[in-house]
Fold:
Amino acid sequence: MSLLKFYTDTHIDKQVASQLRQKGIDVVRCEDVGLAEADDEVHLVYAAENGYALITKDAGFRARHFQWLQDGKAHSGIFFCSDRSNAAIGKIVNDCAAFAQLLEAGVGTLDDIKDQFILIKG
Structure:
């Protein structure tokens, strides 16, 4: 399993989790842990407490990220994709897998992703 592990909120298609798992990456979907109806704060708290980087398409997490930093709270990284189309599935999988592979190869550490808001672009 990868050093980098992910948590997806309800905005992320289940195919993202499935494809990342096929690549040997640890992924938990909010539905897997009974948080499908949870609000954004609950998603981020769960991810942070369990060492998961959050994957989302919810733009509200940008403000939440900065608020957390201002409040002195830490999280394990937020990967944000603004593309709401199905084409975003491949973008998300490729970018997240690339980060995981770089960490596995020793190019950076989990600390490099901690408290970061990472944009996934097309």
